Amino acid sequence: MRKKLLFSLLTLILTTAFSYAQITVSGTVTDASGETLPGVSIMVKGTTQGTATDFDGAYEISASQGDVLIFSFIGFATKEVAVTSSTVNVSLAEDTESLDEVVVTALGIKREEKALGYSLTEVKGDEMNQVKTTNAMNALQGRVAGVNVSTNSTGASGSSRVIIRGASSLTGDNQPLYVIDGIPMVNRTKGSVGAYNGEFGDGGDDVGSISPDDIESVSVLKGSSAAALYGSAASNGVIMITTKSGKGTQGLGIEFSSSLTFDKVNTGLQDFQTTYGQGTFGVRPGYERDTDGNVVPITDPELAVDDALVKGLSSWGERFDGAPTIQWDGVKRPYSYSGDNVERFYNVGSTAVNTISLVKGAEDYNYRFSVSNLDNDDVFPNSTLKRQSYSFNAMAKINPKLTSTVTARYIIEKVHNRVGIGDGPGNANFTALMLPSNLNIKDLKPGYDENGEELKFQSSVWFTNPYWVTNKFNNDDKKNRLISSATLKYDITDWLYVTGRAGLDRYDLSRTRVTPYGTAYRPGGRHYQTKQTFDLFDADIMLGVNKDLTDKISTNSVVGANTQKQTFEALSAQGDNYVVI
After folding, report:
1. N or C: which end of the chain has fewer CB within 10 A?
2. pTM for this one?
3. Mean pLDDT, 10 residues at a time, over the chain (581 residues)?
């Protein structure tokens, strides 16, 4: 009996181990006619493990017996197949409902996706809000083929760079044109590296001001024909944002959304050496080589401290041995690995987003009014982002032939201590990552000495004490922004209509940059102020035809005219000298 029990238990263990053993599953994905399908997404259900088919429709993926593979492709119905062998061939059927889906195209015109002659991908707002970010466009990463979203290492208020189908210019910014509710919007990206960017920081971008809770959908127009109606401004593609309205609502409703996310710097991807310490040519601070090449201590304490200061950021010293060794402040500390300075310096960031909306809909009208508040404490110490958004969308059917739509959103954004980019001066990120591994970054606190000046820990003035930056630098922005539009549509007949639309995107930006007195690379300090005003006015009128000519032939055509005007004013002040730029 005991032998049978042991045998059964062993069989169960071996069977379980076999069922969870990873195997390489391969196969080919085709359509109903047998043609291979490249670019099909394959995921192991319940995991983040996935792959895609190559140009011949073939794929390989690691999975276990009993796992379920999910096959998905635009225009085809998603299919789930259980793994029973190492070869899984799949045929996908066309998704007729998906092909009949109505999407928003250029100029805000709605058409069936199957009728489009160019590439368009639509992402619903619910998908983009699964994890809310301070910049809603970051949620496009990984959701649209051919779209690459990258961010600077400048925290929540930093700029994002969106590139569609690769860079097309060596000198331009290669950013797409952003269109909100049919009206082009301003997106000035201020995240490029230039002189003293460590001091001034990443200025962010304008599209990041849009509240993710106000987005109904985002359509990405990739091809040149898709963006042709917007002219040269759309040479890098178009991202169209459609905001939420009260359409489809019956009666009065209240919506409330709240989210809280935390951010932490991932130190697991870093691989700093922890074997050798501060110094140069295999010599630790406070020591030198004599004429015979032997390592001997510097007997004069003052010279020893000066020597340590010179070698402040060099990590070419001796192998760690734990012996007391003089450091930059004259204190002897163990010559050994001090721990993770990245972990010590950066905080756990948090972002709270709360939105409340009042929605009402009826047969002849609907509206939506929302208030959203975003409160962010960044991983970078003493850096914050506050944003309040007020949004109003309304539609009214004035009479059976005339329809009016009005949208308006007012955004107040305040940023304290934007994070620097570029090299050392004024950039705490740069210095925090450059410390030798036997130095503890907390020994540099509070960043200033008894005279209130920057506490220097090495000889170069261009490597700023990180705590001097976080505690004494003062970089503040405030931006007030209004984005509004009005549309009138008149149905001349059931197939002929005329539409007039006008929109305004305006913001006022005040920016203050204070480099404090006593900064090593700028002892006298610096006070810099700038005020910017940007206006973008856009208006168009269109005559449209949407008619079935025969049972098999139809037309959806528009002809119209557009006018656009941009104005930009900036006033900057440094000290008492005001210069118009």
Report:
1. N
2. 0.76
3. 46 42 88 86 81 88 89 83 91 68 60 58 80 82 79 78 79 82 82 58 81 88 70 82 85 91 82 89 87 84 78 87 90 93 92 94 91 94 94 94 94 90 80 88 93 90 91 91 94 93 93 89 87 92 89 85 90 53 33
